[in-house]
Design a protein that fits this description.
150 residues, alpha+beta, Protein Transport Mog1p, Chain A, three-stranded antiparallel sheet, 37% strand, globular
Length: 150
């Protein structure tokens, strides 16, 4: 009987373990994981995908919330931006660049993540976050730093 209880307790413990890989940065507990083809990231619940974006030759899309617009392009023709070296889960190489937006009409702050999941000759991911304020930029940087590759 004791052995059966031990096996049951171990089984329950194993089933309750959280197998989802956590991001490298602290995010608010209310943030949710957004899973895309080949990569994922954490974001506030208000960030929603714009389904009207139509990519041409790669996997691309846009997410929006008040004060932040994040676009992604994952493919062989994604542009690589030089910036601060960054460690991302599952990435061969990654950089993060923070600059002024060259098109600052409503989103004057810009952060750009460039990342490759394997090697220099494989598809890369570019994510750009246009932001309305410095506070929005800080939120966007948390989102970009939470990217992980499958």
């Amino acid at each position: 009987m004791r052995r059966l209880l031990t096996i049951a307790a171990l089984s329950m413990a194993a089933l309750s373990c959280d197998s989802v890989e956590k991001p490298q940065v602290e995010t608010a507990t209310s943030w949710r994981q957004i899973q895309l083809n080949g990569f994922s990231f954490y974001a506030p619940p208000a960030l929603t995908r714009d389904l009207n974006v139509q990519p041409i030759d790669s996997y691309a899309g846009t997410f929006r919330m008040t004060g932040i617009e994040i676009g992604f392009d994952y493919g062989m023709h994604s542009k690589w931006y030089e910036g601060e070296s960054l460690n991302l889960n599952g990435a061969f190489a990654a950089t993060l660049l923070v600059t002024n937006n060259p098109y600052p009409e409503s989103l004057p702050y810009l952060a750009i993540l460039s990342a490759r999941p394997q090697s220099a000759d494989t598809p890369s991911l570019t994510m750009s976050a246009g932001c309305a304020s410095e506070a929005d930029l800080e939120t966007a940087l948390q989102i970009l730093r939470s990217v992980t590759f499958d």
